[in-house]
Specification:
Belongs to the bacterial solute-binding protein 2 family. This is Substrate-binding domain-containing protein. Pfam families: Peripla_BP_4. One of its GO terms (molecular function) is carbohydrate binding. The protein is of the alpha/beta class. It has 2 domains: 131 residues, Rossmann fold (3-Layer(aba) Sandwich), CATH 3.40.50; 132 residues, 3-Layer(aba) Sandwich (Rossmann fold). The chain contains 12 helices and 12 strands.
Length: 327
């Protein structure tokens, strides 16, 4: 009789332990580390997206979220990026924080994810979908206006402008070029604008910029719109020894491009805030998971013009260097 009673007590204790484990997340689901948020971006190698990841990790720690980070090797590879979204859907994530390679080609898979009940937060690069909960990043039209302001600061009587833009299917680059053109075309000193589109790689931008400059010796202003093309243009200016007679306005910052700003291959950097994009992307994901849906649908993370004249000022140094990821 006593043995039967003891067995019953042990059985009840075991059931209680199992219940507590399931309530506290210590059962099988927690053991497998079920992902709550998937961050899928355009690239994982650039200084820009490493800063995005640093901000995202800070928010993930603060909000106690499990966040995975993924992206294709090439910023043109929307096919691989679509497969990454499909895998996140199969993994049953709650939120996808997404930076689109291609405004249109990524739209269908993002729509499928949203139809499954997965919340979508866009950072940096937009996607053609009405099912996005929040868009976080640079106001690209205004960033283009700032690039124009930096370009027009040159004291030449006549301006011949060369634009080295990247993939025509990226919303960011097209919006930046639009804002730039709308502004510079109002200045009577601007006599001609030439645009080339290159792959979003340093090598392709370098080759394209050199060809453009060699084909038209009148070009005295060059503008480009992301980290990789900025490096390529800087190297092209160095290759051709054009630093003294070509005003270069570039985007983003890393150790190399800041060095180019110091030595004269680049004259101005339009610096975004990728750390804030990553942090706010994950913070927004946390809010959506918790049922908070009343936040803003668009968040502008702002840009700053940094030149050789102001690059050593405290605020510029903070913008250029403060959010580098620590190993």
């Amino acid at each position: 009789m006593r043995k039967q009673k003891m067995k019953k007590i042990l059985s009840l204790l075991a059931a209680g332990v199992l219940l507590l484990m399931s309530m506290s997340g210590c059962g099988k689901e927690a053991e497998t580390g079920k992902t709550q948020v998937a961050m899928i971006v355009k690239s994982t190698e650039s200084a820009f997206f490493k800063s995005v990841f640093a901000g995202a990790r800070a928010a993930a720690t603060e909000y106690n979220l499990n966040v995975t980070f993924n992206g294709p090797e090439s910023e043109e590879d929307y096919v691989t990026q679509n497969e990454m979204v499909r895998q996140a859907m199969e993994d049953g994530v709650d939120v996808i924080v997404f930076s689109a390679v291609d405004y249109n080609a990524n739209a269908e898979i993002i729509g499928q994810a949203a139809q499954r009940g997965i919340k979508i937060v866009v950072i940096d690069s937009d996607v053609n979908s009405s099912m996005v909960s929040c868009r976080i990043g640079t106001n690209n039209l205004q960033a283009g206006v700032k690039a124009a302001e930096a370009a027009l600061a040159v004291g030449e009587d006549e301006l011949y402008i060369g634009i080295v833009n990247y993939d025509v299917n990226s919303a960011n680059g097209q919006q930046r070029e639009l804002g730039f053109r709308q502004t510079v075309e109002q200045d009577p000193r601007v006599k001609d604008i030439t645009t080339i589109n290159v792959l979003s790689t340093t090598e392709d931008a370098r080759a394209g910029a050199k060809e453009m400059l060699l084909s038209d010796s009148r070009i005295n202003v060059v503008v480009t719109f992301n980290e990789w093309t900025s490096l390529g243009v800087g190297w092209a200016i160095r290759d051709l020894d054009r630093g003294d007679r070509t005003q270069v306005v570039a985007f983003d910052s890393n150790v190399v491009s800041v060095g180019m700003l110091e030595t004269g291959e680049v004259d101005a950097l339009i610096v975004q805030n990728p750390y804030a994009m990553g942090y706010l992307g994950v913070e927004t994901a946390a809010n959506l998971i918790n049922g908070q849906t009343g936040g803003p649908s668009v968040i502008d993370t702002a840009t700053t013009i940094v030149t050789r004249e102001n690059m050593y000022e405290r605020e510029s140094q903070k913008i250029l260097f403060s959010f580098e990821e620590r190993k």
